[in-house]
């Protein structure tokens, strides 16, 4: 059921993004009187389609291959590589007959829609749910990679080079995206400098939970119907030991609980000034069924009017962050290309149960990723077509159809290479 839920969320998210993106091309084409031959969700490779209906000059349909979608615009060199129209004289309703500035808007329409969708979603999230954040004021709990880089549990990160991270939840992303060379940390009462091995920057992108917040395990409430609903645990109790082993932080207790699923274990609990020992039941997933306190977690609610500028800022931060990610991927020495993933990687970020907040947030991020990716100046992408239109606007010379066909072919080869890299990385991760 978990896999099915993730698959359904991926398909729904991709369907929304594809329709919104292609609708951008479609609407601008229709505004300028350009005929659109086909509007498809998913690809109808080999002419095989799940659904199709022709309305006016346009055939609307759903293909069988869920790797994208397309809007086939008359008189345009696109991924279909259809040269039949190009052998005939240009018609007034064809893409190639329109001035460069109109063709530019048609090609930019998809990306524009992606950014608008992300902006609307961010504003809706802030207005409807608000936003959680954690000021960077807490010590870190490190995994093996963070330890290898030189960080230690209990450190508090002060600076990345000359940049002071403001949000604890961005510490790992900032370390990779900014290709940090020196981190300044507070360890106990000493201020230390940690020099980052640049060859491990790529691994930072593939190591979830590199910096958790080092929290004491303080009980906020016991889950009704959970394995310890009838136990003596109270709000404010702090779990300080499991099976006689000290657990100063939440993560220390979690590690011990996970290796004893379904068992009843002796647990040491600090209550006020007294240390109590009580048996607690661990469920099949290695959990006690209690909610813990995180005093560092803050929440801010927004009015609709406050959400608009805050949503714009959030969208811009997301675009800037993804551009930094692309720069890392394009720098082979960082090894960040190993983090590139396909639909399998996308599926892993969705929750195992339906959650509107998380779905809309992930959808907004994916919309930004799709928009930025399509702006890359690769001929098979919108960005390549935009570059050709801009070249024509500034020089007054239009690239020949033959040049566009060759460029489109080269671009498609590059995209297939990227696709193979993404699927290869996903398969390698699954094997590991």
Order of helices and strands: HEEEEHEEHEHEEHEEEEHEEEEHHHHH
Low-confidence stretches: none
Gyration radius (Cα, Å) is 26 Å
Structural class: alpha+beta
Q: What level of helicity do the residues show? A: 40-55%
Biggest β-sheet strands, sense, barrel: 6 strands, antiparallel
The number of distinct helices, counting runs of at least 4 residues, comes to 11
Q: How would you describe the oligomerization state of the chains in this entry?
A: single chain
Termini gap: 23 Å
Count of DSSP E strands? 17
The gross shape turns out to be elongated
* Mean pLDDT value: 87
Strand content: 15-25%
Textual characterization of the structure:
- The chain is α+β, with helices and mostly antiparallel strands.
- Helices cover 42% and strands 21% of the residues.
- The protein is built from 11 helices and 17 strands.
- The strands form 5 sheets. Strands 11, 12, 13, 14, 15 and 16 form a 6-stranded antiparallel sheet that branches. A 4-stranded mixed sheet has the order 2-3-1-4, covered by helices on one side.
- A hairpin with a 2-residue loop joins strand 8 and strand 9.
- The protein is elongated.
- The chain starts with a helix and ends with a helix.
- The model has no long low-confidence stretch (mean pLDDT 87).
In short:
This protein is α+β, with helices and mostly antiparallel strands and 432 residues long. The protein has helices at 2-31, 100-128, 144-149, 171-177, 201-204, 250-258, 304-329, 343-349, 356-374, 382-395, 401-431; strands spanning 36-43, 49-55, 58-63, 65-73, 131-133, 140-142, 156-160, 182-187, 190-195, 211-213, 217-222, 238-242, 245-246, 264-271, 274-281, 290-292, 298-300.
């Amino acid at each position: 059921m978990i896999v099915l839920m993730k698959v359904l969320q991926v398909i729904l998210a991709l369907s929304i993004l594809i329709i919104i993106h292609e609708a951008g091309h479609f609407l601008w084409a229709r505004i300028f009187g350009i005929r659109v031959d086909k509007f498809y969700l998913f690809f109808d490779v080999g002419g095989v389609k799940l659904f199709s209906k022709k309305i006016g000059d346009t055939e609307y349909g759903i293909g069988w291959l869920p790797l994208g979608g397309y809007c086939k615009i008359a008189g345009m060199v696109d991924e279909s590589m259809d040269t039949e129209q190009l052998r005939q004289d240009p018609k007034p309703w064809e893409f190639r007959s329109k001035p460069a500035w109109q063709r530019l808007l048609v090609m930019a329409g998809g990306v524009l829609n992606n950014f608008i969708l992300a902006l609307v979603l961010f504003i809706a999230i802030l207005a409807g749910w608000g936003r959680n954040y954690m000021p960077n004021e807490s010590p870190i709990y490190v995994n093996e990679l963070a330890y290898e880089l030189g960080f230690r549990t209990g450190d508090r990160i002060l600076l990345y080079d000359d940049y002071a991270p403001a949000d604890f939840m961005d510490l790992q992303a900032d370390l990779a995206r900014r290709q940090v060379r020196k981190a300044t940390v507070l360890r106990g009462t000493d201020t230390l400098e940690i020099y980052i091995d640049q060859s491990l920057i790529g691994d930072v992108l593939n190591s979830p939970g590199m910096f958790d917040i080092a929290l004491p395990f303080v009980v906020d409430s016991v889950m009704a119907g959970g394995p310890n609903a009838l136990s003596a645990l109270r709000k404010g109790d702090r779990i300080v030991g499991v099976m006689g082993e000290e657990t100063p932080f939440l993560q220390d207790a979690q590690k011990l609980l996970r290796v004893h699923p379904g068992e009843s274990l002796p647990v040491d609990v600090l209550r006020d000034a007294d240390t109590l020992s009580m048996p607690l039941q661990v469920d099949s997933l290695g959990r006690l069924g209690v909610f813990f306190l995180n005093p560092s977690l803050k929440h801010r609610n927004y009015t609709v009017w406050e959400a608009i500028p805050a949503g714009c800022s959030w969208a811009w931060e997301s675009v800037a962050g993804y551009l930094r990610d692309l720069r890392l991927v394009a720098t082979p020495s960082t090894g960040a290309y190993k983090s590139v993933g396909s639909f399998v990687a996308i599926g892993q970020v969705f929750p195992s149960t339906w959650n509107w907040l998380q779905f809309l947030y992930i959808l907004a991020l994916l919309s930004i990723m799709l928009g930025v990716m399509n702006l890359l100046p690769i001929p098979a992408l919108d960005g390549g077509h935009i570059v050709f239109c801009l070249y024509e606007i500034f020089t007054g010379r239009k690239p020949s159809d033959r040049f566009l066909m060759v460029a489109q072919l080269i671009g498609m080869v590059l995209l297939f290479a990227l696709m193979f890299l993404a699927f290869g990385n996903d398969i390698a991760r699954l094997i590991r």
